[in-house]
Specification:
9 strands; four-stranded parallel β-sheet; single chain; alpha/beta; Rossmann fold; five-stranded parallel β-sheet; about 30% helix; 9 helices
Length: about 400
């Protein structure tokens, strides 16, 4: 009997210890018959199932050009193969190739059987797809949005978080913040399903950490915005739970803002780090500066609140000896004027920056709540920005009155 285990719930040492012939599968969507997956792979002893890609493919409700998605998926598979995993696959619905060759495993999927998660037809023609992919399972907060909603696009990652936190730490946190924001202001915002992959330029140091690749990541998210603009949406907030995504998301919003001149597309540095949440974090933290960089006090506290079953506090190793200078140091809110990317191997032996041992679930709950409150404020501000700019445009302000826009 084949055991199928959730790869993203493992810690980094557990991933690093996997036999390199363990099949690892990245599915496009959910709902596949896992018995058939095991049969297709020859009934191995174990199969690692990675987080599903929630959209981007035909039938998902939000399809981007297949070469764009194909490059992103190929990069994810390559990052596993670079670490020595010899059996890596993308599990796709039948009829979706992505030019992956033998790394593609195609099986029947609900979207190829004429139904999607809304219970409607799965075609990609107008009138036959939902306006955006729904949350799963469907909740009242996931009823279809109108173009008056701002779309929240939460982006996490699947990467190492020291010896004690799961690989899906970034995804769990930003999913909770994105969905919490939409629940708080359902008339203003709709949250898409969390995307569980991002960019890790440091990944060779930590076996099993995934990497979309910076350019493929940017191309994918710009294509997502393109599709949503074509459906009438004009306000977007790309929020990240992973620091490695942030510089690339800045490029996405710049490209999107020039390409689509009547939208407002924004991002921000991570979460819980702005004018509302940062003072709360600083006032209630137990660690000194340097205690929150990565898999430290903040992320550990949040996962202790969200998924205590995935935290191994007995394995925590505090590492707070990052090479700090006045204009370059590591904490949750990175400090100083310098921007750099030295090897992680210089500053951590276990993949952690910070003092995870000081984390408490009470602070995790507090910080998540303040992180949501901060995102709610950002959503309101994006609405205000868009509304005031549209008023100017419609009134013929400046070049907008020349008829060339």
């Amino acid at each position: 009997m084949t055991e199928i285990f959730p790869y993203d719930e493992l810690t980094w040492p557990e991933v690093a210890a996997l036999p390199r012939d363990t099949p690892l599968v990245i599915p496009l969507g959910e709902g596949y018959d896992l018995v058939k997956v095991a049969e297709a792979l020859g009934q191995p002893t174990r199969i690692g199932l990675l987080p599903p890609i929630p959209y981007g493919w035909r039938g998902s409700g939000l399809a981007v050009p297949e070469p764009v998605l194909g490059q992103l998926v190929a990069n994810l598979l390559d990052s596993l193969r670079d670490d020595g995993f010899s059996r890596t696959y993308a599990l796709t619905p039948q009829g979706i190739d992505l030019n992956l060759g033998p790394q593609r495993l195609a099986l029947p999927h609900p979207t190829t059987e004429g139904r999607d998660r809304w219970g409607a037809g799965s075609g990609e023609q107008p009138g036959h797809y939902p306006p955006v992919p729904p949350l799963h399972p469907i909740t009242p907060a996931s009823s279809p949005p109108s173009p008056a909603h701002l779309l929240i696009l939460p982006i996490g990652h699947t990467e190492q978080h020291g010896y004690h936190l799961p690989m899906n730490t970034d995804t769990l946190i930003i999913e909770a913040i994105g969905e919490g924001t939409a629940v708080a202001i359902p008339d203003l915002a709709f949250c898409l399903p969390v995307f569980p992959y991002g960019v890790s330029t440091h990944r060779p140091s930590f076996a099993g950490t995934l990497n979309c690749g910076g350019r493929a990541f940017e191309d994918f998210w710009l294509a997502v915005v393109d599709v949503l603009v074509g459906r009438g949406f004009d306000r977007f907030y790309l929020i990240s739970g992973h620091g490695g995504n942030c510089s690339f998301l800045v490029n996405v919003v710049k490209y999107a803002g020039e390409r689509h001149r009547r939208i407002f597309c924004a991002t921000a540095w991570l979460h819980t780090s702005g004018h509302l949440a940062a003072p709360v974090v600083q006032a209630s933290r137990h660690s000194a500066r340097g205690g929150m960089g990565h898999a430290g006090e903040l992320e550990t506290a949040m996962i202790l609140h969200l998924r205590p079953d995935l935290v191994h506090m007995e394995r925590v190793v505090d590492e707070t000896d990052f090479v700090c200078t006045p204009n370059y140091y590591m904490d949750w809110i990175e400090g100083g004027d310098l921007i750099a990317n030295p090897p992680w191997d210089d500053d951590t032996k276990t993949g952690a920056y910070g003092a995870g041992s000081l984390a408490t679930p009470e602070n995790g709950k507090l910080w998540l709540e303040t992180g949501i409150a901060e995102k709610v404020a950002h959503v309101r501000e994006i609405h205000e920005q868009h509304g005031r700019r549209e008023e100017r445009r419609n009134a013929g302000y400046g070049l907008w009155g020349g008829g060339s826009r």
